[in-house]
Specification:
about 450 residues; alpha+beta; 4 domains; five-stranded antiparallel beta sheet
Length: about 450
């Protein structure tokens, strides 16, 4: 393996701070009864409280982990400790032939990958188009009724004046959102639910609320005139309403092959459903991509191989739309490599132009991947901003708590920052400073 994982990249795999700390504790040779590695894997037997040591193993090609301990965390502290030991003290792990419990696991993984590849190549089962059409018609009728009710609610809100929004109870926002869930329009329901936080979100809330209401109105009108819109815009509107696209059908399309830089990652949680957003940038195609992973409760994400600060040669398939952004990983080849630079816009003027161009194609865009080169973090009135070379400033998310960390990384000098831009402010996810990649957020 010619890929080198840094200490920070490995710690970022920990499910929580306690796992990371426990992994650090185990990253020392005397904790292990045996250690070994080959070109693909690393393994070890860790002393535990029981009579038998825990057998930890890592497939470095992913990376993927397995351990005989009973922990439900993934990766567990033993796997983290082994990985950290490999990164920090590689000389302590000698090359050798893997034991049977390692080769058996790798063989099982290879068999599973082969079956999945064969499954993708199989012809899909015949679809009962008549039953499918009936279900779709029934849902569309529910959505039509839900949209009509939402339109009345929006008009009443505007007619009463935005000032009243600050005095409304939670039920004012929650009731129409719940009715949209019943109408099988979860995308609309989420947008209405998020409106409730805007009136209490500081100065300028009126403009922000009006902007969100305008986009909601545009979405309603777009759905009502769906048949008159171009095919890619129709897909965008349906997706925003809450219709989903079949992933198998997406993967069946031709993909985009490139060397993809993994620029940032962020995990959010709502009702125990964790959503992981991984942002990529194609070095040859010069286009962004978003990989979404989902996991419920304490379940691990199915794929943790895309680590920020690395790049990978891979083929992605974009979900169709007027401004394709979300994508699925179709296949990859070779090993991950370290990123040696983060590309981006050299001025805020250029960044705003790129964002405006994206909005003209997809006006309901909620997170825009934005990379800014040669910006300096500055603080004004207890709020952090980024200043470009032309002295323009861009606000950071008010809840961002690492402003002083940013300033320390920059030392007052220009740095490159990648983050999510929502049209109002930027949430930094990673930084390139002094030839080092620093991950800021998960």
């Amino acid at each position: 393996m010619n890929v080198t994982y840094t200490y920070e990249q490995i710690l970022a795999l920990a499910s929580d701070a306690s796992s990371a700390q426990a992994g650090k504790t185990l990253a020392t040779p005397h904790k292990w009864l045996s250690l070994g590695r080959d070109n693909r894997s690393v393994w070890g037997e860790c002393r535990g409280s029981g009579a038998k040591p825990y057998q930890a193993q890592i497939d470095l090609s992913e990376p993927a982990f397995k351990c005989s301990c009973p922990s439900r965390k993934f990766p567990c502290k033993h796997a983290l400790g082994l990985f950290l030991l490999l990164a920090d003290q590689p000389a302590t792990i000698k090359s050798s032939m893997p034991p049977a419990w390692v080769t058996d696991w790798l063989h099982t993984r290879d068999e599973r990958a082969q079956k999945q590849a064969e499954k993708k190549e199989r012809l899909p089962k015949p679809v009962d188009t008549e039953a499918q059409s009936k279900r779709a018609a029934k849902r569309e009728a529910k959505i039509d009724a839900g949209i009509d009710e939402l339109d009345v609610w929006l008009r009443d809100l505007i007619r009463g004046g935005l000032a009243k929004a600050q005095t409304q109870s939670n039920s004012f926002w929650g009731t129409p959102a719940a009715r949209l869930v019943d109408a099988q329009a979860p995308g609309l329901a989420r947008r209405v639910h998020e409106l409730a936080t805007i009136p209490a979100n500081g100065p300028g809330w009126q403009e922000r609320l009006l902007d969100r209401l305008s986009r909601l109105h545009l979405l309603i009108e777009g759905y009502r005139q769906l048949d008159t819109l171009p095919d890619d815009v129709q897909l965008d509107v349906r997706t925003q309403i809450g219709w989903t696209q079949n992933q198998d059908e997406v993967l069946a399309q031709a993909g985009v092959s490139d060397r993809w830089l993994v620029l940032g990652q962020r995990t959010t949680e709502e009702d125990r459903l964790r959503t992981q957003r991984i942002w990529l940038w194609g070095t040859r195609t010069q286009r962004p991509a978003l990989i979404l992973n989902f996991a419920y409760g304490t379940q691990p994400f199915s794929d943790i191989s895309l680590l920020p600060s690395t790049s990978v040669e891979a083929t992605l398939v974009y979900f169709p739309g007027a401004y394709p952004l979300r994508a699925l990983l179709k296949d990859r080849s070779g090993n991950a490599q370290a990123i040696n630079v983060i590309p981006g816009c050299t001025s805020l003027k250029e960044a705003y132009a790129a964002y405006a161009a994206a909005l003209t194609q997809q006006p309901w865009l909620e997170q825009f991947p934005l990379s800014l080169v040669d910006v300096v973090p500055v603080q004004r009135d207890q709020r952090w901003f980024l200043r470009d070379r032309e002295d323009r400033v861009l606000p950071l998310t008010a809840s961002f708590s690492k402003g002083w960390h940013l300033l320390a990384l920059s030392g007052g000098r220009p740095i490159t920052i990648f983050g999510e831009w929502n049209g109002d402010d930027l949430l930094p996810l990673s930084v390139w400073a002094a030839d080092h990649f620093v991950r800021l957020s998960d």
